[in-house]
Amino acid sequence: MAATERMVAAMYENFYEMQHTPFVRDVPISELFESSAMSDALGRLAYAADRQLFAVITADAGCGKSTLIRRFVSSLPKEEYIFLYLSDSKLTPRWFYKGMLDQLGLESKFYRGDAKRQLQKEVEIIRGVQKKKVVCVLDEAHLLEKETIEEFRFLLNYKFDSMSPMSLVLVGQTELWDKLRLQRYAAVRQRIDINCVLPHLDRAETGKYIQSHLDYAGGRQDIFTDRAIDDIYKESTGIPRRINRICEKSLMYVSQQGKRLIDEHLVRYTIEHEMLGGDI
Fold this sequence. Notes:
280 residues, alpha/beta, Helicase, Ruva Protein, domain 3, Rossmann fold, five-stranded parallel beta sheet, 11% strand, elongated
């Protein structure tokens, strides 16, 4: 948070007697709202990690993919799993293997085939000696190039396709599935074991989401009226990132006006006058 925003946030925190800043990205995992879809996705990811499966997670921008991964990683027992994370839109097959080997503390072989065999050998050691399972998450997967996506087919084709060396989770925006549906990726698509889609929050979930952030913040809880939440839901279409921005801007504006309650008129004014188009 920029210094100016931090100062404004401090103003509304004091005004509403809050102990923490709501509607920010660094809310502790334990305090984050968990929708039914999020809970279901977490259960399926846990299954994918345990069975070493290939999973795909998709959602529109701002719908909670990063939150899901944070929750998922925090749930993995460190004595049972080794977690690897890559996020690079220009990831080539060679750098894909190098990135994983780097995180395992190894210097990657130069050639792609050698690096792949090196990784598979290290994973065998981890499984056989350390008795741990490897989970690799590739974020922003909708931006990956054709060559890298096709490499997953060869990585997962292990010991004559009888087992998977690790759990691989692709995380991306909705267009990832549009890409995977192309005929050229049929062999990769057929290997996908689990597909999870995070939808937008509905009206009831939007209310619970806002309340969970206010609960975390402490202080006054009855800040937004039901009609205000109606308008926040309508404007945000149930996308958490947009909900955060509207609520944050509303708190900033209304506290400066010295008003304790945020109704639908104040929310509409905030949306129309206090927010740039890029804010939501």
